[in-house]
Amino acid sequence: MDTVALAERYARVKGALPEHVKLIAVSKKRTAEEIQRLYDLGQRAFGENYPQELRDKQPELPEDIEWHFIGHLQTNKVKYIASFVHLVHGVDREALLDELNKRAATSGRTIGVLLQVHIAQEETKHGFLPDEIRALCAGGDLQSRWPALRFRGLMGMATNTEDLGQVRREFEGLAALRKELIKGGTVNALLFTELSMGMSGDVEEAVAAGSTMVRIGTAIFGERG
Ligand SMILES: *Cc1c(COP(=O)(O)O)cnc(C)c1O
Fold first, then answer.
1. What's the pTM value of the predicted model, to 2 decimals?
2. What is the tally of structural domains in the chain?
């Protein structure tokens, strides 16, 4: 891999982001060596999709990396990442909250979570429906139900379409839902601050709609092999 090209792409991606938007470098399918190169350029937050792959790479890399799990997480794989993961972006069902809470408590730590919302016009994307999130929150204080978790906000993936107006409206819907939940009072407004939305192809629309975290792989590392 060409380190100069990596540095240029990284600088371009970072340069296009407002300062308040956190960059999660998506390193799925990248080797520990590639990740180390980006780390050496200053990046600390990395996102991974595959639990075993993350479990295997984590010990080979610096301890101060902040690991984000951004993909669909099977309940029986939580154990591979619970002892070190910082934030789990794609939490889409209560059974997963239960398992994350249990494993976090066993590890004597807390784990940050983002509730994933199905905002796309596609069957394939995971996530709670907005009404399911409303019902979950209406059931009472989330924090007391899952005390080892920290509810940090929402995550969503927009429809994969050329219609960027639609993409933007979907992201705006997610931002509006976060505000509504805070008003409802069952999430902690001081913690429920994050909106994880935007990837290489739709980052501008996401930022315009209020994203606080973008998950970018290809635009930094190049096409996945
Ligand atoms: C792969 C992936 C990304 C990054 O996608 P790029 O197009 O490589 O930027 C972001 N979010 C999720 C959930 C992903 O699976």
1. 0.96
2. 1
